[in-house]
Amino acid sequence: MDLSWIMPLLVSISVIVIALLVILSLFKAFYRKIDQGQALIVNDLSATPKVYFTGAMVLPVVHRSETMKVSVITLELNRTGKEG
Questions:
Q1: Which residues contact 45 (CB under 8 A, 6 or more apart)?
Q2: pLDDT one-digit tens code per residue, 34-64
Q3: H or E stretch including 5?
């Protein structure tokens, strides 16, 4: 019985599994999640920036990202006299 086909099969399966693990680890490393009440602004190579409210992939060399508060901010103004 010839079992010489088992070793190339095991090597190819292990290469595929390792490649998937690398892709998943890169996704985990470069995904930025944003809290509620904030927006993620990603500047990439296009002319207009992209805005995300939940999270996005931010690649370190290609993208530049900033967070911005978008929640409602209450301001209390005291106006007295002529300005009242």
A1: 62
A2: 999 999 999 988 999 999 999 999 998 899 9
A3: none
The 10s digit of each residue's pLDDT in 1-18 is 677 889 999 999 999 999
What is the rounded distance in angstroms from the CA atom of residue 60 to the CA atom of residue 43?
A: 11
d(CA 42, CA 59): 10
Query: Taking the mean position of all CA atoms in its chain, how far away is CA 11?
Result: 33
Per-residue pLDDT at 81 exceeds 90: no
**Structure tokens of 46?**
């296009």
Q: What is the DSSP letter of 38?
A: E
pTM attached to this predicted model: 0.65
φ and ψ at residue 83, rounded to 5 degrees: -85, 0
CA distances in angstroms from 42 to 12, 59, 62, 64, listed in the order given:
37, 10, 10, 6
CA 62 to chain centre: 13
